[in-house]
Amino acid sequence: MFKFFNRVKTVVSSELNSALDKAEDPVKMLDQFMRDMAEDIREVETAVAKQISNEKMLKRKADDAKAMMEKRQKQAEQAIEAGNDDLARRALQDKKEHEATATSLNESWTTAKNDAEVLKSKLDEMKKEYQEMKLKKDSLKARAESAKTRTKINRTMSSIGNDSSKQGFERMEEKVMRYEAEAETSEAMSYESRSLDDEFEELNKQNGVDDELAALKAKMNKE
């Protein structure tokens, strides 16, 4: 159970490569791997907590058995002083039973304590490796996002100068030039379609301006 991180590392590596090969989103896959690892850590934390609780229970029972040993020892001494050997004998017999219980509980407590220390050490290693992989995940996510952005920009830039874009641009340019030619043609046709009276009217307007200009000059010279 506590070697799962080695297994997870292998799975992460193989699954990530598989995800990339299958065009899956590596960012989502990495997030899922981290969630799975966090769940494993929570399970181990629960196991460690139970082991520590079991260790404390065994310690408490061993201490209780030891306390009863000491109590029966004093009671046996008290019975002897009172001249009651039978009571002293029964107290010593019960003391021996508590002594055996205390010895057994102490052995179990020592084993449980060692197991708890090992489990806590393993849990610390797992949390450390989790943090290291979290940092690596953040780096991989940033690299993946950067790569996707660069790809998107490159595709956009490449589409700007492709044949269809150029052809469309040239087609619009030709259309504008055609509009301009049509405008020039319509102006020329309008000029050519003037009547004789229109031309004389324009000539009279020009002559009227010339007469007004001459009168203005004469006035200014007199002044």
UniProtKB/TrEMBL annotation:
Protein known as: Phage shock protein A (Membrane protein)
Ranges of biased composition (kind: Polar residues): 154-167
InterPro entries: PspA_VIPP1
Biological source species: Oceanobacillus iheyensis (strain DSM 14371 / CIP 107618 / JCM 11309 / KCTC 3954 / HTE831)
Pfam families listed in its UniProt record: PspA_IM30
Region (Disordered): 61-108, 134-171
Superkingdom in the source lineage: Bacteria
Similarity comment text for this entry: Belongs to the PspA/Vipp/IM30 family.
Bias-annotated ranges (Basic and acidic residues): 61-75, 86-100, 134-148
